[in-house]
Amino acid sequence: MKVLIVGSGGREHAIAVSVAKSSQVDKIYCAPGNAGIARIAECVDITAMEFEKLADFAEKNEIGLTIIGMDDPLVGGIVDVFEKRGLRIFGPRKKAAIIEGSKAFSKDLMKKYGIPTAEYENFTNPEEALAYLETAKMPIVLKADGLALGKGVLICNTLEEAKAGVRTLMLDKQFGDAGNTIVIEEYMTGHEVSVLCYCDGTHIKPMTSAQDHKRAKDGDKGLNTGGMGTFSPTPFYTDEVKKFCEEKIYQPTMDAMKAEGRDFVGILFVGLMLTEAGPKVLEYNARFGDPEAQVVLPRMKNDVIEVMNACIDGTLDTVDLQFEDKAAVCVVLASDGYPEHYEKGKLITGWDHFDGMEDYYVFHAGTKQTKDGIVTNGGRVLGVTAKGADLKEARKKAYEAVKYINFENKYMRTDIGKELV
Questions:
Q1: CA–CA dist 258, 156 (Å, integer)
Q2: What is the model's pTM?
Q3: Residues 322, 293, 328, CA angle at the centre, nearest 5°?
Q4: What does DSSP say about strands 2-7 and 27-32: parallel, antiparallel, or unpaired?
Q5: 315 to each of 170, 190, 193, 256, 331, how far by Cα in Å?
Q6: pLDDT per residue over 188-224, tens digit each?
Q7: Does pLDDT of 301 surpass 80?
Q8: Fewer Cβ atoms within 10 Å of its own Cβ: the N or the C terminal residue of the chain?
Q9: Nearest-10 crossing angle of helices 159-166, 126-133
Q10: Residue 211, strand partner residues
């Protein structure tokens, strides 16, 4: 089988590594890919939003399965385009991907179907949002309704910060049209957990848990980013918590989407906050998390192609999803200044030190091949993942590994998973 992966980041590299393990696959393409993905797949110069060109490529090259890694093409309807042309594709249709594409939609869905989440209000008028804040309890959370590269969430500690946040999102349009509508919700406290789930429209199978570190700097300080590192599993996701989420969150979400005529097929990412009042949904995404995929997929025992095909065919209930009894830690190496201003084009050395070494992965995110070698080409450059018998060992191995990799302006958080070892 030939497989096409759509995307260019660390998540897509992690997907490609898993796909390459499948006995069903003899050729992998990636559009547009990156320098790391190019080592195991043929990269194609088509961007993720060129749906017809991607479909033409899939037809011409007899692609057996296309896997969508990114949120933008899913929310934009790439699955619908492929399906109309009889092409097999893994991911939710446009009307289902709205669960990520509109935070206002997902919050209203949870309210309608009694799925636990934070109290909230939606606003399309900035003046009404500012007036609401006058009576709201601080701290408070502001969320751009649309896609904002994982950065459209503002945690505001004071009324002045919150008002400035409304102006940033709705008036200054820092995230463009994503801020036309905003969600203002209560600030929840507790341990944050990410759970990726395979879905076939009716059945849902949660994967092993993970915990992301969104803030740019140590101690969860600095701006929100796309993710600076993650580990899996998290000890806070106990059997009791898992059972609650399966009964009150995961399956009810699938049932709610089906009831709305939006059957969800693909990956449902459920961001949880484990509050004193029980687990609540922070957010939904309609695809693998990044960098969560970089610690979850390396621990999965199943053939990823078999599981994805079961999702598409509606037979996910027959799959016994299994994960290694190991821990994994991913440390993101970023360009200093991310997520705001950073330089590109810096030569990367040592990234191939771990070739062929068991339990080590260097997932490329923002890299580019040049005549001089592989250089930085984004804010998040590499995701260095290590597996170990437990979190302590995995963390030690990951932080030892990053010492071998260097580039000018290299930056990383030094406390990924630190609080647990």
A1: 35
A2: 0.95
A3: 70
A4: parallel
A5: 43, 35, 27, 19, 35
A6: 999 999 999 999 999 999 999 999 999 999 999 988 8
A7: yes
A8: C
A9: 170
A10: 231
